[in-house]
Amino acid sequence: MSGPEDLPILPEHPELREIALASESAGIAVEIWDSDLRTVFFSTESARNMGLTDDEWRTVYGVSVFNRILRTDTDAFQTIEESDIAWRRQNLPILRRYLGPDDPAFEEIFGELGPIAAEVEPADYVPRAWYDRVQLAPDIRFRKYVLGDSDMIQTRISDDSGSFIGIVVQYKVAGLPQSLLQRLGRGDPRLFERMERVSEPARRSAAILFADLEASGSLSRRLSSRGYFDLIRDLTDLIDSSVVSRDGIVGKHAGDGGSALFVTEDFVGSESGAARAAIDAARTIRDGARSLGPEELPARINVGLHWGATLMIGQVATTGRLEVTALGDQMNEGARIEAAAKDGTILASKDLVERLDPAAAEATGIDPDAIAYEPLAEIDGAGDKAIRDAGAIAVTPI
User: Fold this and answer.
1) Residue 298 CA to its chain's centroid (Å)
2) CATH no. of 4-180
3) pTM of the full predicted structure?
């Protein structure tokens, strides 16, 4: 089935096509209406923002802005009444200038608004561009997305002869300053793409990584507050960069530790590829931690690695955060494996290690057929929770 990855469908009009191509190249949320006020372009980013399904995004083409919401889910995309009235008050006179009741397409374009639009006096002058804000009803969810209000700039487009050929609409999250967008732009787009691929919750297999700073309580007492803050900031950056550079997805950060997933589908379906990436990331985190903090108080990071065959992985978007989370028994077990690691070591489960194929095993210096494992319950220093929740799991230091 076709989906937003097949976008864009470009306008036939050559000048509108140029605008569409430029918008798509810039990754901007844009749509274009032609001179009959029909939608002739939806950028990939715009389709994603609206959460259109595979079937829905194609149906908006050739449909006027007044009618196209009827083609999707009207119960899931509702503006507050004041916003709707304000939008009509500003835009109907402008749009009526280009389409009158005597036009054969009038009824088709304005749909249920036809009787109202027919009574509206056309604008004497149409500005080159005008601003609107669309305010959504509280707590409205559209598919898997939580939408907020949107700022819109609508620009009138004329050809070289001065003839009206369409309107370009650009969207931005209302009230979000450009400076904040610039900060978000510091993030790695590869990570954002992986997060997008798992936006819909589903059962997926993945390598699991948990990392935690050993003796964090002692370090926090012996370091200044600023010194400890710098240590945790550097540790967070170390974990994130190690994971992202190896095609993983950063999970939750809890104080002085973090987690990550290496989803099999991001490694062309290779479980071995996911397992190797997790091992490589874990070693980079462990080794990199040695240079963090002052020389007299070296940081030690313990890492636990496990395999999740049927994790429920998906994106969680709230008003305060956007993250990928995973649920399943193996996540709890992975955390217990990490908790049993001591003195800056990596403990990996048998389930993970034995997913390495010969090439990956050689690259990591691990021979899955020659490793001796211990039940987690027999690891020196394993706590009561680790023994209770994951005591029978076979693990080995790597």
Assistant:
1) 35
2) 3.30.450.20
3) 0.65
